[in-house]
Amino acid sequence: MNGHAIESPALSLRRYGADSACDVHAFHQIVLGVDGVMEMAVDGVGHRIDARHAWLIPAGSRHEYAGVGENRQLVLDVPCASLALPERFFSRALALTMNDALAALVRNTASHAARAIPAATSAGGREASETERGDADLARSIGMTEHARRLAWDTAARLAIVLGENVGAQAPVSRLDYARIDKWLRAHLSEPLRVVDLAAHCGLGERRFHQLFEEAFGATPHRYLQRLRLDTALVLLCDSRHTLIDVALTVGFADQSAFTHAFTRRFGLAPGQWRATRMH
Fold this sequence. Notes:
There is one protein chain. The chain is built from ten helices and seven strands. It is α+β, with helices and mostly antiparallel strands. Strands 1, 2, 3, 4, 5, 6 and 7 form a seven-stranded antiparallel sheet that branches. Strand 3 and strand 4 form a beta hairpin. Helix 1 packs antiparallel against helix 3, helix 3 crosses helix 7 and helix 8 crosses helix 9.
């Protein structure tokens, strides 16, 4: 079992060997096919991963895997309750068919990752499997460089947007329609959040709504909205036509100072630094 905790998303571009291996993680994992084929079974359910298929693997799920010939997979490790998606999305493993938007995002990210992330190889000269690398080697392979860290955050933010649209219809049944609430929050980032109004819209009292929201999203409504705002800001910062104050106001901050403080606390760099040093 790979039980090490992670504090922020980590990205790797991997090749899997033909020998079967298995793992269990203390974090969620999203495995997205880039080239070739690999076989993966999560909690006993098998699914083939290729350029159109992926796995969403919840923390604690046992997954067995093996490559089929030459293959490349984009792997995003994410701490529990950190991705800008309802935590309930990860209540069970989900085999996912990628739509055009997600497949294009994976190809583009894989191209960047090939340059930003150092490859890990075994003693035999081929790229090591996840099990062979072990915790220490895995940490190095997923690239604790600034470029790799920023690419991981950027990928997580963009994946959350696309997955929210792509996975909503496949989401597990819940007492709260969290996929619809997530979509509404994303569409109203610039507006103040009135929980009582949102609860009433769902036909619930405020206290009950708070309880069900935290169960589904892994955070309070205001904390989750803050996560959405900041992760959306990452995407907006990639477009130089948006000034910093434009980005701040678009995602719901009253001024640039408040935006800078919150952004720096989450990502470790001020928005201007992130934009100036991001990988093109």
